[in-house]
Amino acid sequence: MPSWWSAGLEPDDAKAEVRRYTQSPAQPQCYLMGKLQILDIVAEYRRRYPSATMLQMHDDILNCGSLPPRSCARSCLASRRTGVSC
Questions:
Q1: Top-confidence residue, 19 or 6
Q2: Cα–Cα dist 76/23, whole Å
Q3: Which helix (H) or strand (E) segment is 22 a member of?
Q4: Which of 1, 20, 33, 49 lies in the 20 to 30 Å Cα band around 81?
């Protein structure tokens, strides 16, 4: 078997991953879409507030709680401007 074919997982772990992805095929796509939305929020935050530290950005985003990404973006980007937490 070619080296690129191996996923680097133990057989039982590989079977569990295949089972998970076949039982809920949209889950990985949802995670990826969420990640991309968070990366967009981070990029916009850095653009608007270049002097903010990574800790400030992290805290502002996490202070939004479990809001949908669009609401989190509005809230955390406005919070730095107004000084009001999410």
A1: 19
A2: 35
A3: helix 11-23
A4: 33
Cα–Cα distance for residue pair 65/72, rounded to 1 Å: 8
Distance (Å, rounded) from C-alpha 40 to C-alpha 36? 6
Does 4 map to a domain?
Answer: no
- Any domain includes 66: yes
- DSSP secondary structure letter of residue 8: S
Tens of pLDDT, residue by residue over 27-45, are 888 989 999 999 999 999 9
* Distance linking the first and last C-alpha atoms of the chain: 52
Average confidence (pLDDT) over 44-56: 92
* Cβ pair 86, 75 in contact under 8 A: yes
Instruction: Tell me if 17 is assigned to some domain.
Output: yes
**For the chain, how many structural domains are there in total?**
1
Indicate the length of the chain as a whole number: 86
pLDDT at position 36, please? 94
The answer to whether the predicted template modeling score (pTM) of the entire model surpasses 0.70 is no
Q: Which amino acid is at 28?
A: P
